[in-house]
């Protein structure tokens, strides 16, 4: 299976306030590369969000803004590329809203949500949060709410689901953004 797993953290309640991004590249069901960056969201940080991910305004000073970062990651967002995220509607909307905020073209890409797949394949879990699913599948998730750690966990969840249930059984969960 070939895909990328992505995760964003936001500075505030607005989806167009990404303050970090991570992408984990999977080829032939193996993690082969990763990318992480802080992002200067150019908006004030919410104390609530900072309590969750521990990223502060001081930490993103000098980090690229969304328009500076997008050229480095946009090649991952094509109609041919599968993008995985745990709670994908959130992460997909961060991409979409960030591009719209800066009047940049919004690509069409395929995505799969590992919250939905885990609900289907592991209905016995008490919930389908990233840490719960990771624990159930014996996937190490240190530093939860760090975009890179969360992306690695998401990638490993999808790899495990493919190995246990087959890529064919995952296909109905693939949507277009």
Topology (SSEs and partners):
Layout: E1 3-10, E2 18-27, E3 30-38, H1 47-53, H2 57-60, H3 66-73, E4 82-85, H4 88-101, E5 110-113, H5 114-121, H6 130-136, H7 147-165, H8 167-170, E6 175-176
Parallel strand pairs: 1-4, 4-5
Antiparallel strand pairs: 1-2, 2-3, 5-6
Helix pairs in contact: 5-7
Structure description:
It is a single chain. This protein is an alpha/beta fold and about 180 residues long. Helices cover about 40% and strands about 20% of the residues. It has a six-stranded mixed β-sheet, sandwiched between helices. Strand 2 and strand 3 form a beta hairpin.
Please provide a brief summary of the model:
The protein has helices at 47-53, 57-60, 66-73, 88-101, 114-121, 130-136, 147-165, 167-170; strands at 3-10, 18-27, 30-38, 82-85, 110-113, 175-176. It has eight helices and six strands; from the N terminus they run E-E-E-H-H-H-E-H-E-H-H-H-H-E.
Keywords, separated by commas or semicolons:
177 residues, Nucleotidyltransferase, domain 5
